Amino acid sequence: MAAKNFVVGCFDDEAVLFPAVKKVRAAGYKIHDVYTPFPVHGLDHAMGLRETSLHTAGFIYGITGTTTALSFMSWVFTTDWPLNIGGKPHFPLPAFIPITFELTVLFSAIGMVYTFCYLCQLAPGVKKHVFHPRQTDDKFVMAIEVTGKSNAEEIKSFLASVGAQEINEQRAETGWWYGRFDKDDTLINERVTPLNA
Amino acid sequence: MKDQFVVPAKLKTTSFVLMGIGVLTLLIGLVALGGEHGSGRFWGGILQNSTFFLLVALVGTFFIGVTTLAHGGWHVGFRRVPEALSMAVPVLGGILFVVLMILVFGHKDQVYHWTNLEHVEHDPILKGKSAFLGAGFFTTATIITLGLWILFTIKLRNMSLQEDSWDLSPDTGRRLLWRNSVWCGGFIVIYALSVGSTTPWLWLMSVDAHWYSTMYSWYTFASTWVSGLSMIALFVIYLKKHGYMSWVNEEHLHDLGKLMFAFSIFWTYLWFSQYMLTWYANIPEETVYFQPRVWGPFRGVFFLNLIINFVLPLLLLMKRDTKRNFTAMTYIAILIIFGHWLDFFQMVAPATSQALHFPWYEFGVGLGFVGVIIFVTAQQLAKAPLVPKNHPYLKESIVHHT
After folding, report:
1. Closest CB to B401 among A41, A51, A98
2. Integer Cα distance of B65 and A130 in angstroms
3. Residue A31 has pLDDT above 80, yes or no
4. What ipTM was predicted for this assembly?
């Protein structure tokens, strides 16, 4: 993973954030990501993110579950170990439906949760750089990547002009690495003194 | 902003043509199907259509009821559409009442087996049910049910129209929500006790007088609810296509589509619950319902029903883009309404006409009822502005984002 330079701006209000996102994009700066304390409707659209393929993955997991359930049960009851249950046929489709349904739901649910965690780079023992400790609390945090075409000072003044409250420069890993959030996070320890310390 | 609907002449003509087709088919049916004394098919077709379309119109009231109780704001932009649709309830309720009274007091035992009192005397099962399936209880329950539906439908509609002349303030907003919630709460209880419980047993299930299924009412509800949602979607799309309701967009259609998708699956769930328990137990008095449908002449219709109402909506409505596409939604909504009409056909016809005929008669009468619904809904839409301007959730609906 490569470390990159970022200019980070904090916003107090989503009403300021929205036009800021649009202006930053219009000015051609590269937004790395925007962190918000709650899901903000329409922000993905404003940031120009493409639609997620999570539901396509979910559909594939679902039909995998359907196929697994139907083929396994048919194989067991017609080929492997045919039993006479209440005089029903050996391929009793109505009796298979509830299990098929359950396995479809189970496969798609579990598959989608894991895929979602993978896409968001979430897992136990995995750590990501936190741009601002209050990004899950009450701040809207926008991280702009400093590329070869832009320079940090220029981005800083631009962010200030669109209403960012707190602006700083950070060098950070873009991906995840093994580590724990409760240990050796210099950023959090430096910036925030816990109230009960 | 065009917020006052004017009924286009073309729509009026269409509704009159459809009503004309309905009356014409009825007259042809009267002659061709052996007259009013000879034919279960003649009366079965009327019963099927009048019940189905009454319950579809009643979905208008139910839609307002549930969304109000759930404090939903997204639908307020097109709230006048379910309101207008619900105003077909008094008309269709009147038609159904006349039909039912003719069936019961005219002793049409080809449709309602239990109205033949001489036969009931020698039939231990029907004799045991006679307190429920008797002219007295049937008539009382029908009058109370229809009366309450009409009362609440008109009350909800009138409240909404009244509120247009209120002054907008936090106090009036609170009062509006409160009195709507009270009346909607009352209606939902009545709806649950009627459509969710006994009414479909009386009106529809009793065509198979010996048979019973507790799932039947919920199944009927699911069928009409999803068709009613499609009907609302169709009217919204129609208004949108004609340049009205600029504040309603694909976000609202998307949510309607989600409900249509979800309740198509809910319908299948109930369909299957009713079928599987019967299949598993394999008791003759229960399988008698499925015998003509799965193994008899109605086999094709039975499985076609499942394809139109489950497989197609499931696959077609699954994608987000389809639910946000006005043209695609038009076709799917029509498909769903037709599918559930066919569902009602296979619920009634095997009992009333035994053999499977090409349903030209039932379909023609159905078109007549569609004409009535279009006519009444259009008239009602034209009566008031298309936006309930004093509703406190109006803004929430306009900025709605799924």
Report:
1. A41
2. 46
3. yes
4. 0.80
Within the 245-274 window of chain B, which residues sit less than 8 Å (CB to CB) from chain A? Answer: 272
Specify the higher pLDDT residue, B315 or A41.
B315
- Separation of alpha carbons A118 and A113, rounded Å: 9
Q: Report chain B residues whose CB lies below 8 A from the CB of A95.
A: 276, 280
Q: How many structural domains comprise chain B? A: 1
Q: What's residue B353's pLDDT?
A: 84
Chain B residue with CA closest to A52: the answer is B320
**Rounded to a whole number, what is the distance in Å from the CA of A72 to chain B's nearest CA?**
21
Cross-chain CB nearest to B276 (options A41, A86, A97): A97
Residue ranges of domains in chain A, CATH in brackets:
3-51+125-191 (3.30.70), 54-119 (no CATH)
Residue in B closest to A88 by C-alpha = B280
Residue B4 lies in a domain: no
Task: Please state whether A163 falls in left (phi above 0), alpha (psi between -120 and 50) or beta.
Answer: left
Residue B306 lies in a domain: yes
Nearest CA in chain A to B275: A94
Q: Which pLDDT belongs to residue B1?
A: 61
Per the prediction, chain B carries an average pLDDT of 92
> Is A194 a residue whose pLDDT tops 90?
no
For B391, phi and psi rounded to 5 degrees?
A: -70, 130
Which residues form the domain of B141?
Answer: 9-398
Q: Does residue B126 sit within a domain?
A: yes
Distance from CA of A95 to the nearest CA of B (A): 7
Residue B308 lies in a domain: yes
* CA–CA distance, B64 with B51 (Å, rounded to integer): 20
Residues B64 and B83: beta-carbon distance below 8 Å: yes
pLDDT of residue B194: 94
